[in-house]
TrEMBL record:
Entry-linked Pfam families: Glyco_trans_1_4
TM region(s), chain numbering: none
Organism whose genome encodes this protein: Volvox reticuliferus
Name used for this protein in its record: Glycosyltransferase
């Protein structure tokens, strides 16, 4: 590998996954070489520690070590100390090209990260006692020119600084680390809120404004940093690197110790490294608990002292689209200044507008997710509803009859609002936020009280939309002057007027280009040729002779100015890059509530062609815009919500004139500069966030001081299926507690064998152990949920159970009557949306409300991303249940944080597991003819989200190093999945025929009874769960593997992330390289495998089915007891 001393080229792919280890230097991008190098500092010398641990790529040291010396900076001296704390054999001959100043030091015993660094620092002070500085650099980092001189320069210029950290970049050139700050987060392991360090700028461009200046930070990661040797000695004497906190929290601990001593910690833009790590490092929960015990109380006090007020604010927002984007912008600078929560109905990638979070920098989207997870802690004092009015009552905040101060954030783009909006503003909410004076005036004209209306403008991140950080693209066929237009081909867009004006303004002028970004409406697969054909069709039907003669595609007419339709619907980031590469922006709409694309173009320093209709009148000015007249016209559209309103029709003649003026103008650069200045002064995220904070502070001081009465919300506005509404509005009968003896009669509604379903298996296992634990004389009856056309079993006696046909409403009614009339004391309802009838499974709510006995609802799968109907169902089911059972604290938090369900009646009872005795894998292998093989195993019904294909891709490198490895794939294609699963299984079989792995893969597809399946699990050395589904909340196979004491490698889906941190290996989603590294980590380290096996078994103690059934028995006794 070769290393360049400048920043690498890459388009900014900001939602990051670790990249493959680079094998060659990336191509340079000229504009990225503007890396600011410091003036040469005096006394630029350092002992540089490079820790070598078990996961270190030794071959990479051949590049890293010489590069540390070569690119340190002019006249800088580097003495490299390889601190070998692993079992690997490292010598200087393996580090080719290393200077004589490279030494290897190795403790007598293997050390973990903190102890390794402490040992290295102690040795450096002894071996290089005259060297003024000590640095630590991770072995995966490749330095850029001047890395050491930059650190030394900043340290010398800031006399109160004790440590300076480098900027760390991903291989695509975006920021990985540039300092941390302490924020409130939800900790799955501790199952509560804590204050932890979070990265501030991960995923932003390397030259993002705030990261281009030296900054004092609260903390930082441990990848690369420098201290004075004298400061290192004091740090070690004070206990630094003595708590076994791992490679991230250890430096947060160091920073806090330095802050306690009155010293400053800096992060420097003058020193940068590229991180080549191929796998995300995750902290051990034990280290996080140690950090919490050491610093938790003081960090919590520090967090509280920084709040502007003590009230809790919940911001309800869409996951994407214009409104979601604006809400994200507003909260960017509010975190840490108030107790802020976010309610987001769906998360990326399931968002209805995935372009927003998908494309934004990682730390931006991570902030939204972090705030979202805090929302379980009810209630909120202030609720800001930044969504469509139709969802104000529906989902999920505020609860009906809430006393919270309710703010509605509204925006619209026609001359009036819908009557329901106006009524809602007048009667149901406390305060209205609108983006412009035009919106405020419109509301006053419709009778909304003026004292309720506040103008809170939309905003943009002027640092991100900065023309100086984006290299212009060379667009196809770009001419002297280029325009960009962006619109959706619907009634609102006025693309026809823009097209006519452009063609007429530049008739016989081929020195211009118009780039068209569009989408179809309703959303259909994007076809560039269809867009061209729509334009040609419009031109052919025009009355103008010239326009009728124009063809844009496939062969443009001679002498016609270029109209270039872009190849696909652009993501937000792609649109930004193209906007930065043109001269003028125009957005052809008849209705502009605010015009976010204009604001973003202005921030990028682009003049615009625009009307001053609607919210644009607040900020569009002639010193940076070519203004277009408009005429108010009645709306003619298929959108029923706009009937009776009017919008502004732009003047074609003025559009023609504006195009010509733009072409003739010598002032476009100055106009763009004026546009950007206006954004920076008034509409940057930080500016608008300060306005929001000021108003919220006023509310807490004036509106929340006294008692507030609860208010009811009109649920009739919600656009959800009728049967969901009907079930939700059914009255709940009085619950009878009619138990007079200890004996219990329990009804259970669930899928049941022979239906092959995880819930059926769960329910059967639970009841097997529950029934013997109930008081004498108790009974349990199962009412199975079946398909309406389900066939009887081919053999055996006829079923005696009273079944509920899934879509037969009469069966639900008759079953509820039977339970109410036949002396049952309680009902257990196993819930998953797909097994109950009605729209989205709504009949479970109807059924629960028909029951006159206490209901226990057991929630199995809880997605992060539920639609409005599913939200309603979940909330109404919880409200109709005496108890709601979930299987982890993480799921309890999600139920509140993501789905607006208070935790008052939520009980955590984990997924049960059979008692699995410890068996020597060699014995189990002998019974299955696997003797001598190292067995990897994945088990379960096979479907494309199982991720087995990723393991097959990782396998060649694994078997090359460990030739006795055998991968067992135990399971058949999922029966409910049909053709997609069958095809996927066939693809797996084909992939396994690769000559490199054909003798290392075995499929076990026949149905296995529990005894044989257990033998396979006991025979496995490593259990692999490579799931692609991020939102699997409960995995029976994971629970079984833990109970069997297996070393587990898994992607961090919800259940795995909650239980495997510190007890197994978590690898990145959709990454064969990460899977490969995770599996090899265990195969290479037998002691680590043994540790994980022991901790897995210990974690599941008390999770056997009998213990879990005791919890259910106690719960049933409690809810059926007369108070």
């Amino acid at each position: 590998m070769t290393v360049l001393n400048e920043l690498p080229y890459s388009d900014h792919v900001l939602h990051l996954a670790p990249a493959k280890l680079p094998s060659a230097a990336p191509v340079l991008k000229s504009a990225w070489t503007r890396h600011v190098l410091p003036n040469q500092p005096s006394n630029c010398a350092a002992s540089v520690l490079v820790p070598v641990l078990d996961h270190t790529h030794i071959d990479l040291l051949q590049t890293v070590v010489p590069s540390l010396q070569q690119y340190a900076g002019d006249s800088c001296q580097v003495n490299v100390l390889l601190v070998v704390c692993a079992r690997q054999n490292v010598n200087t001959t393996r580090v080719k090209g290393a200077h004589d100043s490279v030494r290897i030091i190795q403790p007598e015993v293997q050390l973990r990260w903190d102890a390794c660094i402490r040992y290295g620092l102690q040795q450096a002070l002894v071996l290089d006692s005259e060297t003024p500085h000590v640095a630590v650099v991770a072995a995966s980092l490749l330095p850029l020119q001047g890395w050491l001189s930059g650190l030394v320069s900043d340290l010398q210029q800031h006399s109160n600084a004790s440590a300076v950290f480098s900027k760390i970049l991903f291989v695509n050139g975006t920021v990985k680390a540039y300092g941390s700050r302490f924020e409130q987060v939800y900790d799955d392991y501790l199952a509560r809120q804590v204050v932890r360090p979070v990265e501030m700028y991960a995923g932003y461009p390397w030259n993002y404004g705030p990261t281009m200046k030296t900054m004092a930070v609260q903390a930082a990661g441990c990848s690369a940093w420098l201290m004075r040797s004298s400061g290192v000695n004091k740090l070690l004497e004070g206990g630094g690197f003595s708590l076994s906190l791992g490679s991230y929290l250890a430096c947060s601990d160091m920073a806090l110790r330095l802050h306690q001593a009155g010293r400053t910690v800096l992060v420097s833009p003058l020193s940068s490294f590229i991180d080549t790590a191929t796998r995300t490092q995750r902290e051990d929960p034990a280290t996080m608990q140690t950090f919490e015990q050491t610093w938790g109380p003081s960090l919590e006090a520090q967090y509280v002292s920084g709040l502007a007020f003590n009230a809790t604010v919940t911001w309800v927002m869409q996951c994407g689209g214009p409104e979601g984007s604006q809400a994200f912008n507003h909260v960017q600078h509010l975190e840490g200044q108030l107790r802020l929560r976010a309610q987001v109905q769906r998360g990326w990638p399931f968002c209805e507008h995935p372009d927003v979070l998908q494309d934004m920098p990682f730390s931006f989207s991570e902030r939204v997710y972090r705030l979202r997870r805090l929302s379980a802690y009810l209630p909120s004092d202030i609720v800001i509803h930044h969504k469509d009015y139709r969802q104000l009552a529906a989902w999920p905040w505020p609860p009906n009859n809430s006393s919270a101060y309710l703010i509605g954030r509204y925006s619209w783009d026609v001359d009036r609002v819908h009557r329901q909006w106006a009524e809602q503003m007048r009667n149901e909410i406390d305060e209205v936020w609108v983006p412009s004076i035009w919106h405020a005036t419109s509301l006053e004209q419709q009778g909304v009280q003026a004292e309720k209306i506040f103008v809170v403008p939309n905003s943009v991140d002027a640092h991100f939309y900065d023309p100086d950080i984006w290299d212009p693209l060379t667009l196809p066929q770009q001419r002297r002057l280029s325009f960009l237009t962006s619109f959706r081909m619907d009634d609102r867009a006025c693309w026809q007027a823009v097209l006519v004006a452009y063609l007429k303004a530049f008739r016989d002028n081929t020195d211009v280009s118009l780039y068209v970004h569009t989408g179809t409406h309703p959303p259909l697969p994007y076809r560039r040729d269809h867009v061209y054909e729509a334009m040609n069709r419009f031109l052919r039907g025009n009355n103008d002779t010239y326009l009728r003669s124009v063809s844009l595609y496939p062969r443009p007419s001679s002498g016609v100015p270029l109209v270039y339709v872009l190849e696909h619907e652009l993501t937000q980031l792609e649109l930004l890059r193209i906007c930065a590469s043109v001269d003028v922006m125009i957005v052809p709409t008849r209705n502009d509530g605010w015009g976010v694309p204009y604001m973003e173009a202005m921030s990028l320093g682009k003049p615009v062609i625009a009307t001053t209709w609607g919210g644009l009148a607040d900020y569009i000015q002639p010193d940076f815009a070519f203004l277009v007249n408009f005429t108010m016209t009645p709306i003619r559209t298929s959108d029923k919500g706009l009937r009776g309103a009017a919008w502004g029709e732009p003047s074609v003649e003025r559009l023609i004139d504006s195009f010509k003026k733009a072409y003739d103008s010598k002032d476009l650069v100055d106009m763009g500069r004026n546009a950007r200045s206006r954004v920076i002064e008034r509409y940057d995220n930080e500016i608008v966030s300060s306005l929001v904070l000021e108003r919220l502070t006023e509310i807490t001081e004036s509106e929340l001081s006294g008692n507030r009465s609860a208010k009811a919300l009109d649920m009739a506005k919600d656009q959800i299926p009728l049967d969901v509404v009907m079930c939700a509005m059914l009255p709940k009968p009085h619950v009878r507690l009619n138990r007079t003896t200890p004996a219990l009669k329990v009804a259970v509604v669930s899928t049941a064998p022979p239906r092959r379903c995880g819930i059926a298996i769960f329910n059967s296992a639970l009841l097997e152990y529950l029934q013997p634990l109930l008081p004498q004389g108790s009974s349990v009856e199962v009412f199975p949920l079946i398909w309406d056309t389900e066939m009887p079993a081919l053999s055996g006696s006829a079923p005696t159970q009273r079944a509920i046909r899934q879509e037969n409403y009469g069966d639900y009614v008759s079953t509820a009557r039977a339970i109410n009339a036949e002396g049952f004391h309680a009902a257990i309802l196993q819930h998953e949306f797909g097994i109950w009838g009605g729209a989205e499974g709504s009949l479970i709510v109807c059924f629960a409300k028909m029951l006159e006995v206490p209901v226990v609802s057991v929630i199995h799968s809880l997605s992060d991303n539920l639609g409005d109907p599913q939200q309603y169902i979940l909330q109404n089911l919880a409200a109709s249940s005496k108890a709601v059972v979930v299987m982890s604290e993480s799921t309890r938090n999600k139920l509140g944080a993501f789905h607006g369900t208070p935790s008052d009646n939520v009980v955590v009872l984990p997924h049960g597991t059979p008692v699995i005795s410890a068996v020597n894998p060699a014995v189990a292998k002998a019974m299955l003819n696997l003797t001598g093989r190292t067995v990897l195993m994945t088990n379960g019904l096979i479907n494309p989200m199982k991720g087995v294909d990723l393991v097959l891709q990782a396998l060649p490198a694994i078997v090359e190093e460990f030739p006795y490895v055998l991968y067992l794939i135990v399971g058949e294609p999922h029966p409910d999945c049909g053709t997609p699963c069958a095809n996927y299984f066939a693809e797996l079989v084909a992939a396994a025929s690769d000559h490199r792995i054909v003798n290392h893969v075995r499929f076990v597809t026949k149905f296995l009874d529990d005894r044989v399946l257990l033998q396979y699990v006991q025979a496995a050395d490593i259990y692999i769960l490579p799931y692609k589904d991020r939102i699997t909340t409960n995995s029976g196979t994971l629970t079984m593997a833990l109970a069997a004491g297996k070393a587990i490698v898994s992607t961090p889906f919800d259940h795995a992330a909650a239980v495997l941190a510190g007890r197994g290996v978590l690898v990145d989603f959709d990454s064969p390289v990460s899977l490969q590294d995770g599996i090899l980590e265990l195969l290479r380290d037998e002691s680590l495998m043994t540790k994980y096996q022991r901790e897995a078994r210990e974690f599941l103690l008390g999770h056997d089915w009998r213990s879990i059934a005791k919890g259910y028995a106690s719960l049933l006794a409690n809810i059926t007891m007369r108070s």
